[in-house]
Design brief:
The chain has 13 helices and 8 strands. The protein is α/β, with parallel strands linked by helices. The chain folds into 2 domains: 114 residues, Rossmann fold (3-Layer(aba) Sandwich); 114 residues, Rossmann fold, CATH 3.40.50. Strands 2-1-3-4 form a 4-stranded parallel β-sheet, with helices on both faces. The N and C termini lie far apart (47 Å). 42% of the residues are buried.
Length: 250
């Protein structure tokens, strides 16, 4: 009988999670360990997306090289953000197109083994019931990166496996929440109007909780709800799946 070594999974813990809500990273590590994986978090920094989006490829490449080097030994890389996963998976190969051939290959190799968290976890648990429970209506916010770039379909499938829950596709899910990284800083008035539209629809949906796969969007929505005096809790999907709902919401 051949004993297979457990897969070693590199966790790319995004800047927002690392700085504002590291508990999400711990939730994901526990979920992967339950499925027999060995998660590890190497030294890492930003994926380079802010520099890339600001038209600074030189800086983006510099940051991306550090990311590529950190995850060379991982059999797979899991990212709890469609936005950052999209940067690595879809933009790194193009970003390195004019770099030396060895770096082009490294960028392509990392892109090939990078997965957004829900897509990877859904494959791991396809025929496995989840331990998570939540008695209430969960509103799923589909971020722009999840919908348009990564084309994620597994998040709601996972939520529907949460015992006792009713999953609600929020009205206007195809519309941006107004975060958009630096967009919310550069165009704050437009951003505020967009998230106000989003929170009105969330309240009209009468959900008990809001979730999604991108922390930036969730922070934007949660912040606006709180300013409006609405106490609906907001959690990253990994926290729900891991049953980590005792901590205060986002």
């Amino acid at each position: 009988m051949i004993n297979k070594s457990p897969p070693v999974i590199g966790l790319f813990i995004t800047c927002l999670i690392d700085i504002t809500r590291p508990s999400i990273g711990f939730s994901i590590a526990r979920l992967l360990e339950r499925q027999g994986c060995v998660p590890f978090v190497p030294k890492q920094s930003c994926c380079g997306q802010p520099a890339h989006n600001n038209g600074n490829p030189k800086e983006a490449i510099s940051v991306a090289k550090a990311t590529i080097t950190s995850f060379e030994t991982a059999s797979a890389v899991v990212v709890p953000s469609a936005s950052c996963a999209g940067m690595i998976k879809h933009h790194y190969p193009a970003l390195f197109a004019n770099e030396p051939e060895d770096w082009q290959q490294k960028a392509q190799q990392l892109a090939a083994k990078t997965h957004e968290f829900t897509e990877y976890y859904a494959n791991l648990t396809e025929n496995t019931p989840l331990e998570a429970e939540y008695n209430g209506r969960i509103g799923y916010h589909e971020s722009c990166s999840a919908r348009r770039e990564m084309k994620i379909t597994s998040a709601t499938k996972l939520l529907r496996k949460v015992k006792g829950s009713e999953v609600v596709d929020l009205p206007g899910n195809e519309e941006c929440c107004g975060f958009g990284g630096l967009f919310s800083v550069k165009f704050d008035e437009i951003s505020n109007a967009m998230v106000a539209t989003k929170t009105r629809k969330i309240q009209a949906a009468n959900v008990d909780m809001v979730t999604g796969v991108d922390l930036g969007c969730l922070m934007n929505i949660a912040g606006k709800l709180r300013k409006e005096g609405v106490t609906t809790p907001v959690y990253h999907i990994a926290e729900i799946l891991a049953g980590d709902l005792a901590a205060p919401s986002i």
